[in-house]
Amino acid sequence: xxxxxxxxxxxxxxxxxxxxxxxxxxxxxxxxxxxxxxxxxxxxxxxxxxxxxxxxxxxxxxxxxxxxxxxxxxxxxxxxxxxxxxxxxxxxxxxxxxxxxxxxxxxxxxxxxxxxxxxxxxxxxxxxxxxxxxxxxxxxxxxxxxxxxxxxxxxxxxxxxxxxxxxxxxxxxxxxxxxxxxxxxxxxxxxxxxxxxxxxxxxxxxxxxxxxxxxxxxxxxxxxxxxxxxxxxxxxxxxxxxxx
Length: 244
Fold this sequence. Notes:
Order of helices and strands: HHHHHHHHHHHH
Cofactor: heme
Number of strands: 0
Number of helices: 12
Catalytic activity: L-tryptophan + O2 = N-formyl-L-kynurenine
Pfam family, one: Trp_dioxygenase
Function: Heme-dependent dioxygenase that catalyzes the oxidative cleavage of the L-tryptophan (L-Trp) pyrrole ring and converts L-tryptophan to N-formyl-L-kynurenine. Catalyzes the oxidative cleavage of the indole moiety.
GO molecular function, one term: metal ion binding
């Protein structure tokens, strides 16, 4: 196959007929389309972030820190876009959402296998989330693989040890000597910072639209989201700031 196949169109390359036919509202209410598009877009961005994290892990394993920075910087930029998208969803009023909420049935963003996979790949590994994916499904298999494989944090920490730094505190106290590891750590903090911002905006959006009602699919809704605000993928990198 040539790099530029003759006759290929924009729609062909992007498989637009398939992509644009994937929005199938269950009601005839206007705002359901926005709800679907927002969540499908998030899943596409999650797919890209997983792609970048896999690359970053492989680069860190090879001590190619500079190349890993680019992939990790891209992840944090995507996180910013995802956080901003909550503002678009927030144009939907409580009345708008409640009019079609019943058609969601037991579906819930809580069930997003890709989001849990991303958490696992960062280093937030909670095997209880396997139970939200049916056995034998691709989502559960991917989650199990991510649970079993070294995470981004585990890979970065192994790189620190391999390169001879006694601790991350040492890396920060002598950042010129350990500049590659120091910059890697700061890229990880960028991601954690952005993840916390995403969680906070998610909570505010949910509170704005459904208040403290339970979420669909049996989740606790806003109260559960509030409980996640202190989650950190790289807690050691936050803790050392007090010691510097």
